[in-house]
Amino acid sequence: MKLLMRKMRFFNPKRYIDGLRREMLALFCRRDALLQPKSPIISFSFDDFPCSALTVGGTILQAYGARGTYYVASGLINSVNMQGVHFCEHDLKALMAEGHEVGTHTYNHTSIHAVTLESYTADVVKGNAFVQEVTKKHSKLNFSYPFGHVTLAAKQVAGELNSSCRSTFSGINHGRIDLNLLRANRLYSSMTDLKTINKLIRINSEIGGWLIFYTHDVRDKPSQYGCTPRFFEEVVKEAAKSKARILTVESVLAEIHSDLTSKALKISST
Looking at residues 210-237, what average pLDDT do you find? Predict the structure, then answer.
């Protein structure tokens, strides 16, 4: 009885419910793909698109021969907030010219918890249309959930409209992965320690998985959702040392689809 009482003292109902909710989200409305990379993969992504994500973060990636995926909340164009100055049209063109990927993050950075499903769907469509117009690519895009907020309904809608949907659920994508809920790990100077990050990179190398990182601004005095240039470069350096290939999300999906096509052709020829 005393042991039970002691356990109950440390029981956190909110954490328990959040855990159940995450399990449900991971189980349903899936779009499975088999990940069998030739070698470990690491992707670096940025949400919203504050300018420093490109001018500082993008420059660091390029120094290591790498490129990133930028999930653009299109309605933030020419704005300023806690993350600093956000992108302008010229920045989008520079991003593409430098070989980075432009993904989408809704138009108004909309949380599914704040609007109806109909409004959310319209905002996803509007954000996609903006990016497709700028990039002149009218195929499906890669998407990330604003604030990391996702419901089964949002997962279903966003999954149908996009090539992939990146979450803020931590972990490594390995084996049979869910393209509607790609796992990713935050790079926030105020909340993440390098020891934890280095451990993830090491495990990813051991299992041959796909490790995705995300952040926002990259500045000497970052927002709580960003990181310092020194912190970011330490992670990129460790990723490069691990011998993992540093690829954009788009490049990884192209490999997955290429493998599927190759297997289908082999089956049809037998």
Answer: 98
